[in-house]
């Protein structure tokens, strides 16, 4: 009998992946965690029935969440990652020798432990000596921290369940306080395409725009996320990601990336007309 993983992208559209076997299924204190093995996407895991990470397309998401801010300001030394329990964002950050400290705050330790077992492709650098893991709510962490970061990356789940607080004005405000004058905030902006996601994207953008003098949105394609069209927000007190990109400096690092390059960096901020209109009205 064939086994399929099916995810509802809207009430009227579903996305399915043929599954070889289910590797893991547990209910943590925060969410339901499932791992599957598939022919098309390799190992993948879902939280509360939503695709998080798979072996085949994770490079797109993790390249874009890390290299866009790093090429904008190569002097970034202290980084805070909120969420990101699979370790993919940390893995990309550890490729920069210039980064001195990476604090990762993940609410659900069980996600990290399961990824260490089933997804070494993303979790392989969580033991890097620059990485400090905190298992607590990112909302409380940024509120209480005295640390000042050069970069905060919000690698969260959607704004439902434990991730909800990471889309609030209070959270963005505390991120702004925990960032240096040169600081950059990159966060999950959902998709502009389907109505519910588009609404969340507009709400997030509206809140961030009020707090940061530079606030932009960039796009990339994620084959396994609803509609395949995904956005990150880029906000900063100082850096404009297009004008301030350090093309030669970044290229001289000779990091091999499968998705990101400095031409794409500039291009990904050019958005479709309907997305621009949404952002203008946010
Ligand atoms: N790339 C993924 C995506 O967007 O589908 C997200 C990656 S990562 C698995 C998201 C993580 O955020 C989850 O492991 C979840 O436990 C964590 N998370 C959710 N809410 C959080 C919170 N309030 N504080 C810290 N981590 C949180």
From TrEMBL:
Catalysed reaction, written as an equation: S-adenosyl 3-(methylsulfanyl)propylamine + putrescine = S-methyl-5'-thioadenosine + spermidine + H(+)
Task: State whether keyword Transferase applies.
Answer: yes
What is the protein's given name?
Polyamine aminopropyltransferase
Recorded metabolic or biological pathway in which this protein acts:
Amine and polyamine biosynthesis; spermidine biosynthesis; spermidine from putrescine: step 1/1
User: Which EC numbers characterise this protein's activity in its record?
Assistant: 2.5.1.16
Supply one GO molecular-function term.
Answer: spermidine synthase activity
For biological process, the GO terms are: spermidine biosynthetic process
Biological function: Catalyzes the irreversible transfer of a propylamine group from the amino donor S-adenosylmethioninamine (decarboxy-AdoMet) to putrescine (1,4-diaminobutane) to yield spermidine.
Family to which the UniProt record says this protein belongs: Belongs to the spermidine/spermine synthase family.
Which organism does this sequence originate in? Anaeromicrobium sediminis
Q: Where does spermidine bind?
A: 62, 86, 155-158
Q: Where does S-methyl-5'-thioadenosine bind?
A: 31, 106, 137-138, 162
Enzyme class, broadest EC rank: transferase
Identify the residues that the record assigns to the PABS domain, covering every copy: 2-237
Q: Name one GO cellular component term.
A: cytosol
Task: Supply the alphabetized keyword list.
Answer: Polyamine biosynthesis, Spermidine biosynthesis, Transferase
Active-site residues are 155
